[in-house]
Write a structure and sequence with these properties.
The complex is a heterodimer of chains A (294) and B (295). With 294 residues, chain A is an all-alpha fold. In chain A, 75% of the residues lie in helices and 0% in strands. Chain A starts with a helix and ends in a 6-residue tail after the last helix. By secondary structure, chain B is mainly α. The chains are: A mainly alpha (294), B mainly alpha (295). Chains A and B meet through helix 2, helix 4, helix 5, helix 6 and helix 7 of A and helix 1, helix 3, helix 4, helix 5 and helix 6 of B.
Amino acid sequence: MPETAFASERQPVAPVALRRRITNHFMTGVAVLTVILVLVPLFAIFAYLVYRGVGSINWAFLTQTPKPVGEAGGGMANAIVGSGVILALASVLGVPIGVGAGIYLAEFGRNRFGDIIRFTADVLNGVPSIVIGIVAYSMVVLTQKHFSALAGGFALAIMMIPTITRTTEEMLLLVPQALREAAYGLGVPRWRTTISITLRTATSGVITGIMLAFARVAGETAPLLFTAFGNQFWNLRTDQPTAALPLQIFTYAISPYDEWHKQAWAGALVLIILIVTAVAAVRFAVRRGTFGAA
Amino acid sequence: MLLCGLAVLATLGLIVYQLVLRSGLSWHAFGFKFFVGHDWDPVNEQFGAMPFIYGTLVSSLLALLIAVPLAIGVAVFTTEMCPAVLRGPLSFFVELLAAIPSVVYGLWAIFVLVPILSTYVEPFLSRTLGWTGLFVGPPYGISMLAAGIILAIMIIPIISSITREVLMVVPQHQREAALALGATRWEMIRVGVLRNARAGIMGGIILGLGRALGETMAVTMVIGNRPEIAKSLFAPGYTMASVLANEFSEATGNVYLSALIEIGLALFLVTIVVNALARLLVWTVTRGQPARAHA
């Protein structure tokens, strides 16, 4: 009996309910459609990259320097090594400052001044990379009077700092307060606690942040255009123009030569493999490390 | 440690100082006219930045127009609708989009997107929507439209990951309350979730805008690099970031270089304002917690 009463009460609402049900299904369909529309370019990019890249990559590509236009063969060995040099310089400059600032924010920065730095780091994160290139140009290139790997490294370091700062802070804040208190209780001074207890516990997380920042700047082209500048030959000196993988891809991609286009695809594949390996290694390490849940 | 913190402040200070210092020459020569002038003539040292400002704005807005619905759809799907098994891989794939370097997007756009646009999409658009005047002219593919589309693909991960974070901090009882009132799932999402997350989603969108404004390489590779203002989206354009990328290392003469740096300064100021606004919006929603805590 109660069921029928319930049913008769429901009846007048039924046409509206149908419309609402249709809207519900329709919107679910729309959401699924958006997911498909977003994933299609992703797979298209990867599939095409692997297809073109695998077809063009070979031993010579990894071991030789570029050949002049019109000559087949040649490779990007100098650009791969050059990227390595520039990224190493960037890490040497950027990692200590980034980690240091992160430690400051987590351990001593629970105040207004800390908030200012936090906000500055976030804003710095949004500065267009090309603008950072200009700053590196006017500070390093103009003083040295020529393009150099150092200027490129400087630009990339500025880009790494905010990312590292923020992730380091997050990771240190995950370290339980009790650990710090235990150290204080044993009479360990604050700076010592920070270095040997807090930082040590959060190491895997901090490294994750560093790797993410590294992966982010590894593919950067814009800040290198007028700092590292590029080079067709071998160069290991940090005060000379240096080739970089993303720069070389750019130069080859906008050139009119088929041979160079193939090289650009091979370069892009190498670059993506390097970046994805870095990111995947981080995911793997983090899952096994102390902060698996982070 | 304090020193490192100060270094972060100093870096921002240095950026401002260098840009202001080096753009002084151009500022003195052209004053405010620089931003409204249409002529970009390095030979006669006449510089007006209007075509670049126009190109940056139009390509970014076009990108937002395409990216926002898609990104919000993906975020809603991953947080509210999708089976738990799919959630992890799905957000991983979308974040993978963010890991692809700009120059690789550009490479793909030149060899895949642009040909598709010029053979299928642009002829179709000019047949059906040509009367609007937005889709006329020869369909070369290399165009403002191509720049907008590639930018959209690039900013989707940012908007969608921020939106996802914001949706996840909407209290569960809001959802339960809506469902208890007899709402369907979509009504629950609309009334209980999206409405509560408005400010944060807006923050994500503005953050995406900030990224689109400053994006350089992919845009430079497909926009055509011609400093002209055209109504049609099929026409080539030029953005502030791409003129820097193309002309900076070849700039001869101090005024030319200074004019380029002034464009850089303008770009910097705009992105600073846009980003600060976005951060504030996101902060008000997540209450200052580090944004990646839920990732």
